[in-house]
Structures are given as C-alpha cells and as structure tokens.
Specification:
The chain is an alpha+beta fold. The protein has helices at residues 15-26, 56-64, 68-71, 120-132, 179-183, 248-253, 256-267, 315-335, 343-371, 376-391, 393-403, and strands at residues 3-11, 31-34, 51-55, 75-78, 80-85, 96-100, 115-119, 137-140, 145-150, 155-159, 164-172, 188-204, 211-217, 220-227, 235-244, 274-290, 294-295, 298-300, 306-307. Strands 1, 2, 8, 9, 10, 11, 17 and 18 form an 8-stranded mixed beta sheet that branches. An 8-stranded mixed beta sheet has the order 6-5-13-14-15-12-16-19. A 3-stranded antiparallel beta sheet has the order 3-7-4. α1 (15-26) runs parallel beside α4, α1 runs parallel beside α8 (315-335) and α8 (315-335) packs antiparallel against α9 (343-371). 48% of the residues are buried.
Length: 419
C-alpha cells in the first residue's frame, strides 16, 4: 500500500473545507484535501442551485486568502435588508425592519456593502483557482475514508481503496452526516424543523437595487436575495422558500410557470413578475450542534460541527469563522513547533468556536419558532419588536455589525490580516 503523508488532511471538499485548505496552504502548511466527488462536479449550475450570503467579515477572510478577487465577478452587493412580517407589499402589517448601509457610521467602513450574495458555484471556482496556485495543497478526489486511527504522534487514515495516509491532524468538513465525527464518539444535539428549504434562481422584471428581502410567513421565512444580472440583462435573485416538509412533493411537482406564480403570490409584485431560471432543489432543514468540536487528532468545522436554520443566512459565515480561528491556531502552533494534533491545541479551538456556534444556533432556532406561526398575539408582539429595533439607531447598528461578522474576538483573517 502506498502512503501519502501530509501535515493536515481535510476530509470534505465543500466551501468550508476548500477555504481551510486555502488558509493553511497560503501559510505554507502541507495539506491533503480528500473529497468523495470529483472536484469538477461542484462547478456545474445543476449541482445544488444554492447561493450564499457572504458577510463583510467573511469577504475579508477570503480576501486575505487571495480568493475574494475570483468571487467578485459573481458577487452581488447587499445594500439594503428588508425584514417584513408577511409579504413586503402586504398593507395589513405596517411594521418592518430596514437595514441600510447609510445606517452605519463612517467608522464601520462607510457605504461599503453589508455583504454579498454569491452563487456557490462561483465560490467553488474561485477557491479551486486559488488552491491550484498553492504548491503545498493537494486534492485527492474521488476518495472515500473508511477509518481513522489516532495515535500518540500521528493519525492514520485508511481509504476505501486500501490506501493509507499518515498525518498529524484530520479535519472533518464532511457536512451534517460526518462519519469521522460519529466514529470519534462525539455526541450531537439534533432535531428536524419539519421544514424544507426550496432553492432556485428567479428572474424578475424590476431591478432589486441590491436589496435582500426576508418575509416571515406562517410556514417559514421566504427570502429573495439579490444576484447579478445575467449576460442578457435579466434581473435575477436567489430564492430560499421555507415550507412545511409535508408540502415538498406538491411544491416540487409544480411546473416552472406555476412555481413562479406561487412565489409571486407570497412575495407581492414589487419586483414584477417572476420566472424560474434553472433547476429547483429542496433540502431538509435541521439544527445540529456537536458537544465538542474535536476528538483524538480530529477537528470538526462547518456543518460537521454545527448546522442551523437558514433564517439569518449565516451558515457559511459561521463555517468561515471556524476556518479563520482553526487556521490561526494551527499556523501559530506550527511556528512554535507544537504538534498540530495535540489535545491542548484542539481544546483551544473548541473553546474559541463553541460559544459563537451555540449562540447563533439558539438565535436562529428562536427566530424560526417565533416567526413561523400566525398566532395573533405573538404576531403583534413581534411586529412591535421589529418596529422598535428599526427606530432604535444604536441597537440597529449593533445587530448590523453582528450580522456583518465584524464584532467579538476576531481572528486575524476576519480582520483582513495575513496569518
């Protein structure tokens, strides 16, 4: 059997795993990334249909890694965020929350966008371009991991095809169904929301003007997020429609025209008529939180460690903060000659990242429970709350800064600094 040695092995080639490979490779660490699928698969428009909100803090991470310039052509700036209880044009609810770049102080970077919406395939392309420039990063795909055997000085990964890989540290970036996490005996808190997220791209008659809409409807949030116009000049947005799981079949069975009409009934006519572009996808929505983010010679990042409701669009941003924190810890340890897989190093990572993750999981869970109903007294209370925050300038700026990922104990990458 052939042995492939690397300082760090990353298992999982999603956006978070690719970002960590870029972070460690930029700092000169020897990295081997393993993915179950060929890397080219994620570049196709039909791969998953999703777009991600990239906060200002996350774009600073990607910029520090030399990745963001490749994302910019596909990045649509978020200049306004409008949160409404019901359809944006619904006259019965005058209460809403409006975040605008003008609400930020000059010290908060003036009129720069609060973030961007980027189709995931463009993020993947930019990341793969960057990895191709890094001589210490290798990708092995398709490759399936059979088992991890941690030892006192190293770990041994055995692949399904019999190959073995010796490494100091294995990082699980496999997603919610992490086999490495399960094999390490790391317990998780997990429950289903009995909801699905239906995602696709919509064309519309009127320009979105950089506005992200989040409409709270009884079945769950209905988000219309700005994308760049296509080459033909069509105005486009990314849709995330939260619906009851029991309605999956009926929603997915709709013709494109009927689906677009259903979106219009929920959203209103402020963007004109909708037209579906490309495929439609439906994903089950869950909450997942690992009791710790490490095991013997193992670290968990992204959805291997935590997954949350998409109500605030913070899933990828949370994963990128994992990347920034873990990369900083590992790079500093390497400079000091410390074993990258030592328990002290891994415990430090869990301590740094778990509070942020627990807080955001609980916040998104509470928001979904609060807004995914049509009980009159609760609706009145939440509407008054939205209006109060909208009128309280300092409180609004506080929430905006948190959503932008520019507060708290920030790793160097999140501040836009090199490792």
């Amino acid at each position: 059997m052939t042995k492939h040695d690397a300082e760090v092995c990353i298992v999982g080639g999603g956006l978070v795993g690719l970002s960590l490979a870029a972070a460690l490779g930029t700092a000169g660490l020897d990295v081997l990334l393993l993915d179950a699928r060929p890397v080219e698969a994620g570049l196709k428009p039909s791969f998953d249909g999703r777009a991600s909100a990239i906060s200002r803090g996350s774009s600073q991470i990607l910029d520090a890694l030399g990745v963001w310039p490749g994302c910019v052509p596909g990045a649509s700036p978020i200049l306004d965020i409008r949160v409404s209880d019901g359809r944006p044009s619904e006259p019965a609810s005058p209460f809403f929350l409006h975040y605008a770049v003008e609400d930020l102080d000059e010290g908060d970077a003036g009129l720069e966008p609060m973030g961007h919406i980027v189709e995931n395939r463009f993020n993947r392309y930019a990341l793969l371009q960057r990895l191709a420039e890094l001589p210490t990063v290798r990708i092995l795909a398709p490759a399936l991991v059979e088992r991890l055997e941690p030892g006192s000085a190293s770990a041994l990964l055995t692949l399904k095809d019999g190959r073995t890989l010796k490494t100091s540290l294995v990082i699980a970036a496999e997603g919610q169904r992490s086999g490495l996490r399960e094999a390490a005996g790391i317990k998780i808190a997990r429950w289903s929301y009995a909801q699905i997220g239906v995602v696709t791209t919509l064309r519309h008659e009127e320009p979105h003007l950089g506005t992200a809409h989040e409409c709270f409807l009884p079945d769950g949030p209905f988000a219309v997020l700005p994308l760049n116009d296509d080459k033909a000049g069509h105005h486009r947005s990314s849709l995330v429609w939260t619906a009851r799981a029991e309605d999956r079949e009926s929603i997915m069975a709709l013709s494109n025209a009927d689906f677009a009409a259903a979106c219009g009934r929920r959203f209103g006519d402020s963007l004109g008529a909708f037209e579906q572009e490309g495929d439609r996808f439906a994903y089950p929505l869950n909450l997942l939180l690992a009791e710790r983010f490490h095991g013997p010679r193992l670290a968990l990042i992204g959805e291997s460690a935590h997954a949350m409701h998409p109500i605030a669009g913070q899933g990828l941003n949370l994963g990128l903060r994992d990347v920034a924190a873990l990369a900083e810890i590992l790079v500093d340890a390497r400079r000091l000659g410390i074993d990258l897989g030592s328990p002290e190093i891994l415990k430090r990572y869990t301590r740094w990242r778990r509070f942020d993750s627990v807080t955001l999981c609980l916040v998104t869970d509470s928001l979904n429970r609060l807004f995914s109903n049509d009980i009159a007294p609760i609706r009145l209370a939440r509407d008054i709350g939205l209006a109060a925050v909208d009128r309280a300038g300092p409180l609004k700026r506080f929430f905006m800064q948190h959503a932008m990922g520019v507060t708290g104990k920030l790793p160097r990458l999140t501040r836009g600094e090199a490792l």
